[in-house]
Structure to design on (189 residues):
């Protein structure tokens, strides 16, 4: 995982945009860019916190997941409840998805890299093929609001500890193999 500045994130997003044909010129010419307003993002963040208040420990709401030519790109809002260090590092790896986390609020320590012990595999309708298990040899890195983490497909990752009552982050998912379902319209909680 690499923590980047806001300026570096903007450069990365521009590079990704140009790398996939600036969201495919024909798509932009037909319907314009896909816009998620601050109002919609704020409403999704609020819904995620309501999900946690109702007893969930994780809320992962897909705002959009759209086709961009040869692949797809998704944006989700994720919130998690406080996690204490329990001495055992566990996590997941997305077989087909690259992820970029932008931390909106809260603080914690991520574990990334390393390898799984006793890997379990599954196929999620939300995130496609996944691996999970205990992580050995990963790197612990603290994150706080404004930080950005880049997690390549196949990399084990998880939360070692969440220091605040909740942590909220926006995930940008690159889906070159189109394993996630398309969601081109607004949030439906």
């Amino acid at each position: 995982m690499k923590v980047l500045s806001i300026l570096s994130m903007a450069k990365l997003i521009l590079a990704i945009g140009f790398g996939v044909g600036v969201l495919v010129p024909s798509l932009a010419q037909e319907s314009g860019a896909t816009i998620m307003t601050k109002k919609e993002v704020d409403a999704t963040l609020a819904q995620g916190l309501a999900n946690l208040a109702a007893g969930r420990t994780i809320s992962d709401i897909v705002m959009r997941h759209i086709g961009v030519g040869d692949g797809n790109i998704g944006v989700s809002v994720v919130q998690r409840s406080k996690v204490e260090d329990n001495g055992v590092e566990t996590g997941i790896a997305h077989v087909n998805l690259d992820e970029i986390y932008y931390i909106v609020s809260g603080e914690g320590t991520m574990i990334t890299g390393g390898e799984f012990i006793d890997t379990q595999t599954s196929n999620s309708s939300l995130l496609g093929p996944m691996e999970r298990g205990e992580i050995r040899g990963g790197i612990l890195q603290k994150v706080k609001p404004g930080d950005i983490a880049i997690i390549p497909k196949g990399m084990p990752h998880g939360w070692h500890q969440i220091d605040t009552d909740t942590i909220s982050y926006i995930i940008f998912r690159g889906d070159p193999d189109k394993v996630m379902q398309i969601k081109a319209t607004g949030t439906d909680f």
Remarks:
- The radius of gyration is 16 Å.
- The CA atoms of residues 63 and 145 lie 20 Å apart.
- The longest strand covers residues 157-175.
- Helices lie at 6-19, 25-31, 38-53.
